[in-house]
């Protein structure tokens, strides 16, 4: 009797299926406990701002009056926004394409370099530099002043090496001193001279740095007499340091202007040309009888070449894209290099044994096998360039900020940079989100496909 009662009071045995369900339930609870802080942060920092921006985009600048889709309509009527859309499209097409191509070429070439690790490290180092610091670096590098901007310093050096530069860009003649200025910037004597005569050409405004170190006083040269068949003269600095001297006359302390091109002109045609000596003297020999004008060509006074306006309206966007390439090329190279290292070497060796050259192997084997990696790199860079803000805001000067603006900078300018219209800024943010989502979805599907 007692044994029967104890048997009836004992709990029913737990089946294996119930145990599995309880284990799964406990696992879900533990997983949720670990994931909950991340979900909380994700909701506070991502989901809530997105939903708030979507809602805010339907209100006016003050946020009190519902305007429906007016902000979206205004967004596509605003010329600045349309320019931002155009510049963003340029970024999306140009930057990821160049980066993927450069990364592929460098990844292939690095395999053939002896110090491959050091080379990769060198190219990857810009990734450690913040966009703020990189923007400041390139803002200085693109400076139009050759004394500050390294790029223009190089351009000016190459230009001057091949075409030369003017000797005295700031020189000019005094009024009433026998020289008249032509429309092209040259100077010409008002009176004519014949062989056997001398001509003194005085100029002022020559900076001390422009005066050649070997320049000598012009006084002795001015006193020399010309032969019967030659026309002599001197080009000098009509200025005496410390004051004194007489205008239009070569004084003892006044320096000649060497390396000045001088021409003898008759009936509007140049019949002879020469260059002044260290004391500024020149002479034209074997001239025929008659009257001649002496001309100082405009090339003597041309302003120095200042280089390229990298941050002007025409080149500011390509210049900023160049800075972006400097930062992200190492990233693309390392990712593509990792994919390259995983390629089956037997396929490459088989192609070489069949007589394929390196270009054929690269085009027909390496690139097709790397297509999944190249796609991931390209799409990742597309997402990144759509959000670019720092480089554009820092590198582009104020006057050309509108010419370089992209959607991210335009959103900031409209909302906080003087526009104070957060309704329109929110609409721009929603547009940027809608443009980024397809690329993100594509990337997620690629990752899932690769895992399968």
TrEMBL record:
Signal peptide: none annotated. Residues 85-443 form the ABC transmembrane type-1 domain. Pfam families: BPD_transp_1, CarboxypepD_reg. The chain crosses the membrane at residues 29-51, 89-109, 121-142, 323-344, 365-383, 423-444. It is a multi-pass membrane protein. The keyword Cell wall biogenesis/degradation does not apply. It is found in: Cell membrane. Keywords: Cell membrane, Membrane, Transmembrane, Transmembrane helix, Transport. The keyword Transport applies. Belongs to the binding-protein-dependent transport system permease family. This is ABC transporter permease subunit. The lineage of its organism: Bacteria, Bacillati, Actinomycetota, Actinomycetes, Kitasatosporales.
């Amino acid at each position: 009797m007692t044994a029967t009662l104890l048997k009836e009071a004992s709990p029913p045995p737990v089946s294996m299926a119930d145990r599995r369900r309880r284990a799964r339930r406990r696992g879900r609870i533990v997983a949720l406990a670990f994931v909950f802080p991340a979900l909380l942060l994700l909701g506070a920092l991502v989901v809530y701002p997105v939903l708030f921006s979507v809602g805010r985009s339907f209100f006016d600048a003050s946020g009190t009056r519902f305007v429906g889709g007016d902000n979206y309509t205004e967004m596509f009527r605003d010329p600045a926004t349309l320019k931002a859309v155009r510049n963003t499209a340029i970024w999306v097409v140009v930057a990821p394409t160049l980066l993927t191509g450069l990364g592929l070429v460098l990844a292939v070439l690095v395999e053939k370099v002896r110090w491959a690790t050091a080379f990769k490290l060198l190219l990857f180092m810009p990734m450690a530099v913040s966009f703020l610091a990189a923007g400041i670096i390139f803002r200085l590098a693109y400076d139009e002043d050759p004394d500050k901007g390294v790029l223009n310093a190089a351009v000016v050096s190459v230009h001057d090496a091949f075409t030369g530069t003017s000797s005295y860009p700031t020189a000019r003649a005094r009024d009433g001193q026998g020289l008249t200025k032509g429309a092209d910037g040259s100077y010409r004597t008002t009176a004519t001279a014949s062989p056997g005569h001398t001509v003194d050409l005085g100029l002022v405004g020559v900076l001390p740095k422009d005066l050649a170190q070997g320049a000598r006083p012009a006084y002795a040269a001015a006193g020399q007499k010309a032969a019967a068949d030659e026309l002599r003269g001197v080009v000098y600095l009509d200025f005496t340091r410390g004051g004194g001297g007489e205008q239009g006359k070569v004084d003892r302390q006044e320096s000649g202007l060497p390396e000045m091109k001088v021409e003898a002109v008759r009936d509007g045609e140049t019949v002879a040309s020469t260059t002044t000596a260290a004391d500024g003297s020149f002479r034209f020999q074997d001239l025929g009888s008659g009257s001649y004008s002496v001309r100082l060509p405009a090339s003597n006074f041309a302003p120095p070449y200042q280089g390229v306006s990298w941050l002007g309206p025409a080149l500011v966007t390509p210049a900023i894209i160049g800075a972006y390439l400097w930062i992200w090329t190492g990233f693309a190279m390392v990712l593509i290099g990792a994919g390259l290292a995983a390629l089956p070497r037997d396929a490459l060796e088989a192609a070489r044994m069949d007589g394929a050259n390196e270009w054929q192997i690269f085009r027909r084997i390496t690139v097709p096998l790397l297509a999944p990696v190249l796609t991931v790199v390209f799409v990742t860079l597309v997402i990144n360039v759509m959000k670019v803000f720092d480089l554009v805001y820092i590198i582009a000067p104020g006057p050309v900020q509108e010419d370089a603006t992209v959607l991210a900078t335009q959103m900031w300018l409209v909302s906080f940079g003087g526009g104070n219209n957060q309704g329109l800024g929110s609409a721009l943010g929603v547009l940027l989100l809608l443009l980024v989502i397809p690329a993100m979805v594509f990337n997620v599907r690629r990752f899932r496909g690769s895992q399968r």
